[in-house]
């Protein structure tokens, strides 16, 4: 398995194709191409029987270049790296960064393939594929391409453990723009496999990754925070930022702000008494009817209660 990191810090796991599958795919392509070439050559020989020898040689060279070189280049360009043989064996030609190939990649592979496959009967291509760690022939090296397997059994994605609840949202102001992709990949791999490591080895690795991450961000790790928890919190903050960037950070009714629990900031108790308006008179307390000489209370004009501004959120009944 070959891991590549794209510009979006996404780890791509590519499985390079080995020599047996590539040889079978090339063999199938050559058999089909040779059959078509022989049929076309026979038809051209019958059609150009009245021409001179130079014209017949020119037609033969043109058919060779068109059918054995031009057609494979066109097929790989239009199919984005999947010829008939590669499609049959589940292979595909991609760039070194995992992207689809273009015409220039197919042109370089086809031009070099004439020498290392057709003229040397595949001996040079086999030697180069055996020497290369990812099974690349010379055409792949010069074109910057890689033949990978598409039919790979799907596996479960590794689970990144969440940070402790008391660390959630503590690194919202941290600058993560200077952290390289290789360090993100190393931190992610450690978090997904820290349960399989030896405790001492895992602790040393966590301290080294935490120090590297703190050096890239320019902010030291908080005192007393375990390195593993610090790494998980920073990765969680980065994932939260990516989610906000992808889906937006709009808030609405029932959506709590970042770092605040739903329902925080309001009380479920009885509503407070409405505030009196400026200039309003407050009625005196009525006297006890049992007191001698008590007079009837004078009713003050009732003022309408002040309306509370609408917040768009209704507390539960």
TrEMBL record:
Region (Disordered): 248-317
Chain ranges of the RDD domain: 17-144
Keyword list, A-Z: Membrane, Transmembrane, Transmembrane helix
Record localization: Membrane
Transmembrane segments: 23-45, 57-75, 106-131
Keyword Transmembrane: yes
Location, primary (coarse class): membrane
Membrane topology (UniProt): Multi-pass membrane protein
PANTHER family according to UniProt: SLR0254 PROTEIN
Protein known as: RDD family protein
Species the sequence originates in: Streptomyces neyagawaensis
Taxonomic path: Bacteria, Bacillati, Actinomycetota, Actinomycetes, Kitasatosporales
């Amino acid at each position: 398995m070959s891991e590549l990191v794209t510009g979006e810090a996404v780890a791509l796991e590519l499985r390079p194709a080995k020599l047996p599958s590539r040889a079978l795919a090339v063999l199938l392509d050559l058999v089909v191409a040779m059959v078509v070439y022989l049929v076309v050559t026979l038809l051209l020989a019958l059609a150009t029987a009245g021409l001179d020898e130079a014209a017949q040689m020119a037609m033969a060279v043109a058919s060779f270049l068109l059918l054995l070189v031009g057609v494979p280049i066109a097929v790989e360009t239009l199919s984005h790296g999947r010829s008939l043989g590669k499609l049959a064996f589940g292979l595909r030609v991609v760039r070194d960064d995992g992207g689809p190939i273009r015409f220039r990649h197919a042109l370089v592979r086809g031009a070099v393939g004439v020498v290392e496959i057709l003229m040397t009967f595949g001996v040079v291509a086999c030697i180069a594929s055996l020497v290369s760690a990812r099974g690349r022939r010379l055409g792949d090296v010069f074109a910057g391409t890689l033949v990978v397997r598409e039919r790979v059994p799907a596996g479960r994605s590794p689970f990144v453990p969440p940070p402790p609840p008391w660390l959630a949202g503590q690194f919202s102001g941290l600058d993560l723009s200077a952290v390289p992709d290789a360090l993100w990949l190393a931190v992610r791999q450690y978090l997904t496999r820290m349960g399989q490591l030896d405790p001492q080895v895992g602790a040393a690795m966590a301290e080294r990754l935490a120090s590297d991450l703190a050096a890239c961000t320019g902010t030291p790790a908080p005192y007393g925070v375990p390195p593993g928890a610090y790494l998980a919190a920073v990765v969680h903050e980065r994932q939260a930022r990516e989610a906000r960037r992808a889906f937006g950070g709009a808030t609405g009714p029932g959506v709590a702000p970042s770092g605040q629990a739903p329902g925080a900031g309001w009380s479920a108790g009885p509503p407070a008494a409405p505030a009196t308006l400026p200039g309003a008179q407050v009625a005196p307390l009525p006297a006890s009817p049992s007191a001698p000489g008590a007079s009837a209370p004078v009713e003050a004009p009732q003022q309408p209660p002040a309306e509370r501004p609408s917040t768009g959120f209704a507390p539960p009944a």
